[in-house]
């Protein structure tokens, strides 16, 4: 057993975590048929088979090639097919395989990709049985969290693909019975904060992505943040009040999306004679009025907040409030794959919370050197920050400083709404 660094995990600890995460990814694929592995329903989504191969390519490229001189991949073509966006890594062809065409990769087969994963696993575990320096251990830790990101993407991407199928395939059992609604008319409970000078961002202990730091000071005016995310019942009232028909509620770009895309409800909602239904990884179900509304864009979240005479929190406000509420709601480990009604104050899990903050670097941020500097930094433009994780986020992957980011029109993630206001 080799100690990697003072106070850090041992090689055997890393091996156990690596094996656990890789096993969890395989477990998520257990309900699938071989035909499901190649589905890509839109450019933003990727086939399950590609996720399986890409995460293996990540370990192969950044861990095995760095630690094992002369390492040879099971197939040299994989460096071209399964690189995502690391432009600085030469792949022999001078370009990366187009994201929009990943569903055309019928070969390598699912069996070959699974064999590729097994080969990478053997090499990584052999490496950890020997000696790993702290720098390489840090990259391995990054790869573990990178795979957990793709566990969430496997489920969100597969959900969209199943939604596009008129047979409405079921991935897992349907969500539990509906809960009692918490009407908007009762005014949701808000947590007050006096504001002042606060520290935001990761402080450097334990793992964090580079975009979570450095920790820095922010001055906040007194504010309040809702104790619970917005429910389906509350959002249905917004729809019933003409929310999608009133341009005064929308940002200009959001209203343009409503018009061009024909939005009239969150993604995966449909209206029936008996009321609203929602598509889940368990198929079509009657909408649970008490559960957190999800699959809304930033534009929809912002319009709802304006309708409710509130606003979205800044990410600094969200993080400051979340530090006082360490409890977590529904997450991947529950195997429910859908948000539930919130019964206690929890800022983690359930649905990602849109914030009004643009995704930008913190003061003093510097991307890491080399290809890994492309992980987060180059996307700091035109996207909005989400906080808190969702019902398909692994618990060991999320923390209050975690900064997720998507374009304001994106809806296929489990993104929801938490209101804020000036105290």
Question: Could you write a compact summary of the structure shown?
Answer:
The chain is of the alpha+beta class and 423 residues long.
What is the fold's blueprint, element by element?
Elements: H1 11-28, H2 48-67, H3 78-81, H4 110-128, H5 134-163, E1 190-193, E2 196-200, E3 216-220, E4 223-226, H6 232-240, H7 252-261, E5 269-272, E6 275-280, E7 283-286, H8 298-307, H9 315-322, E8 352-358, E9 384-387, E10 404-406, E11 415-416, E12 420-422
Parallel strand pairs: 8-11
Antiparallel strand pairs: 1-4, 2-3, 4-12, 5-6, 6-7, 8-9, 9-10
Helix pairs in contact: 1-4, 1-5, 2-4, 2-5
Can you offer a commentary on this structure?
This protein has 423 residues and is α+β, with helices and mostly antiparallel strands. It folds into two domains: 11-163; 184-422, paralog of FGE (formylglycine-generating enzyme) (Alpha-Beta Complex). Helices cover 30% and strands 12% of the residues. The chain has nine helices and twelve strands. The protein has helices at residues 11-28, 48-67, 78-81, 110-128, 134-163, 232-240, 252-261, 298-307, 315-322, and strands spanning 190-193, 196-200, 216-220, 223-226, 269-272, 275-280, 283-286, 352-358, 384-387, 404-406, 415-416, 420-422. The strands form four sheets. A four-stranded mixed β-sheet has the order 10-9-8-11. Strands 1-4-12 form a three-stranded antiparallel β-sheet, with helices on one face. A hairpin with a 2-residue loop joins β5 (269-272) and β6. α1 (11-28) packs antiparallel against α4 (110-128), α2 packs parallel to α4 (110-128) and α2 runs antiparallel to α5. The protein is globular. The protein starts with 10 loop residues before the first helix and ends with a strand. The model is unreliable at 1-7 and 182-186 (pLDDT under 50).
């Amino acid at each position: 057993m080799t100690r990697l660094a003072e106070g850090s995990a041992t090689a055997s600890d890393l091996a156990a975590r690596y094996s656990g995460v890789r096993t969890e990814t395989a477990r998520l694929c257990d309900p699938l048929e071989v035909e499901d592995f190649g589905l890509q329903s839109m450019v933003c989504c990727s086939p399950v088979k590609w996720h399986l191969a890409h995460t293996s390519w990540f370990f192969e490229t950044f861990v095995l090639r760095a630690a094992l001189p002369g390492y040879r991949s099971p197939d040299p073509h994989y460096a071209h097919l399964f690189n995502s966006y690391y432009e600085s890594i030469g792949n022999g062809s001078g370009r990366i395989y187009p994201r929009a065409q990943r569903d055309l990769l019928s070969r390598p087969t699912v069996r070959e990709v699974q064999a590729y994963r097994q080969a990478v696993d053997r090499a990584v575990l052999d490496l950890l049985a020997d000696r790993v320096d702290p720098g390489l251990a840090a990259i391995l830790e990054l790869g573990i969290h990178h795979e957990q990101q793709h566990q969430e993407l496997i489920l969100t991407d597969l959900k969209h693909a199943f939604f596009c199928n008129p047979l409405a395939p079921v991935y897992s059992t349907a969500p539990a019975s509906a809960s009692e609604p918490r009407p908007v008319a009762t005014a949701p409970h808000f947590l007050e904060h006096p504001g002042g000078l606060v520290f935001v961002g990761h402080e450097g202990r334990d793992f964090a992505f580079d975009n979570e730091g450095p920790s820095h000071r922010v001055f906040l005016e007194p504010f309040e943040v809702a104790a619970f995310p917005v429910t389906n019942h509350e959002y249905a009232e917004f729809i019933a009040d003409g929310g999608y028909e009133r341009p005064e509620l929308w940002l200009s770009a959001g209203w343009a999306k409503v018009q061009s895309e024909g939005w009239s409800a969150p993604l995966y909602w449909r209206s029936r004679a008996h009321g609203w239904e929602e598509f889940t990884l368990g198929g079509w179900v009657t909408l649970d009025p008490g559960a957190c509304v999800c699959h809304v864009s930033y534009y929809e979240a912002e319009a709802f907040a304006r309708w409710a005479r509130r606003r979205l929190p800044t990410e600094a406000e969200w993080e400051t409030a979340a530090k006082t509420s360490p409890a977590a709601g529904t997450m991947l480990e529950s195997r429910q794959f859908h948000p539930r009604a919130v019964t206690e104050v929890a800022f983690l899990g359930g649905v990602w919370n849109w914030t009004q903050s643009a995704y930008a670097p913190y003061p003093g941020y510097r991307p890491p050197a080399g290809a890994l500097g492309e992980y987060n930094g180059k996307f700091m433009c035109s996207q909005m920050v989400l906080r808190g994780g969702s019902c398909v986020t692994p618990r060991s992957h999320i923390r209050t400083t975690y900064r997720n980011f998507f374009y304001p029109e994106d809806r296929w993630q489990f993104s929801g709404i938490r209101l804020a206001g000036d105290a």
